[in-house]
Amino acid sequence: MKILMNTKLIDRGQAKVDIEDRGYQFGDGVYEVIRVYEGEIFTMDEHLQRLERSAGEIKISLPYSLTELKDRIRELVSVNQVWDGGIYMQVTRGVSPRNHLFPGSDIPAQLVAYPIPSKRPEELQKTGVEVITAEDMRWKRCDIKSLNLLWNVMAKQEAADAGKFETIFVRDGIVTEGSSTNFYAVKDGTVYTHPSNHFILNGITRLKILEACRNAGVNTVEREIQASELDQYEEAFISSTTIEVMPIVKIDGKSYSKGKPGPVTLSIQKAFRDLLPDRKKD
Ligand code: PLP
């Protein structure tokens, strides 16, 4: 496998991370996961724009222009013959003697991108998943796709240890999002999801789902969902680049839409797939 390390495509085995890379020592960096469907890079512009925004919010300058970056990512996909998979990429503040203070502007950011396996979780998309809730203990800049994922990692593990798929965060009584997903609840045919502010990552899949809903004539409302009112909703689902639209059938043991993916969720799942550059949609 070839990986992109700054300007060069090199063999996976030759890639080395310096012990003083700030991503390694401080989690001082940002990342993206992009999906490739049938060799086509899905929503690359949106992901790269979000990467640039995330980096800018923590005062990291990307080492390439977005145009250059796009060309290099295309090259990476082509050299590795990625057909149905993903690309992970991250940018850190660079390598410099350990110090909380930013290094000088002469220290370049370090970029790495490489293919990762990613397959549509088709069975789970049909059956739906169970989730649990937990307090959202993350910092209040969840809009930045930062390498600091400690609470997300803890929460995902808690779900797995309980035999569940995902943990949904609740901050001050409000449902925000999942540990690596956005959250939606459905009532009377309307889809509700948290507004895109600093309490959630504005998922690229979320944006596409809102678009898919508009195309399918499904009403959407971006507003806070009270955790105490969750049981008043008929359906729920989560989304991300890797899981697309994933129905939720139980939250903390309580069933939604009789323990099966709900009809509105399934129609959105289909409408989302219709946006994909995927010739085998069903
Ligand atoms: N929210 C969080 C916390 C995430 O980590 C992710 C993806 O990793 C998402 C939402 C979904 O984002 P996207 O649809 O861009 O993959």
General description of the model:
The structure is a single chain. With 282 residues, the chain is of the alpha+beta class. The protein is built from seven helices and 16 strands. Strand 15 and strand 16 form a beta hairpin. The longest helix has 14 residues. The site of pyridoxal-5'-phosphate has 14 residues, from helix 6 and strand 14.
Keywords:
282 residues; alpha+beta; D-amino Acid Aminotransferase, Chain A, domain 1; D-amino Acid Aminotransferase, Chain A, domain 2; 2 domains; ten-stranded mixed beta sheet; six-stranded antiparallel beta sheet; 16 strands; globular; binds pyridoxal-5'-phosphate; aminotransferase; EC 2.6.1.21; pyridoxal phosphate; D-alanine aminotransferase; Class-IV_PLP-Dep_Aminotrnsfr
Q: What is shown here, in short?
A:
Its cofactor is pyridoxal 5'-phosphate. This protein is of the alpha+beta class.
Overall pLDDT level: 96
Cα-based radius of gyration, to the nearest Å: 19 Å
Number of strands: 16
Q: Please give the CATH architecture of the largest domain.
A: Alpha-Beta Barrel
Q: Please, what is the CATH homologous superfamily of the largest domain?
A: D-amino Acid Aminotransferase, subunit A, domain 2
Specify the biggest β-sheet: 10 strands, mixed
Beta-strand content estimate? 25-35%
| Shape label | globular
Q: What is the first-to-last residue Cα distance?
A: 30 Å
Low-confidence stretches: none
Q: What is the overall number of helices? A: 7
From N to C, what is the helix and strand string?
EEHEEHHEEHEHEEEEHEEEEEH
Q: Into how many domains do the coordinates divide?
A: 2
Structural classification: alpha+beta
Provide the CATH top-level class of the largest domain: Alpha Beta
CATH topology of the largest domain: D-amino Acid Aminotransferase, Chain A, domain 2
Unique bound compounds = pyridoxal-5'-phosphate
Helix content: 25-40%
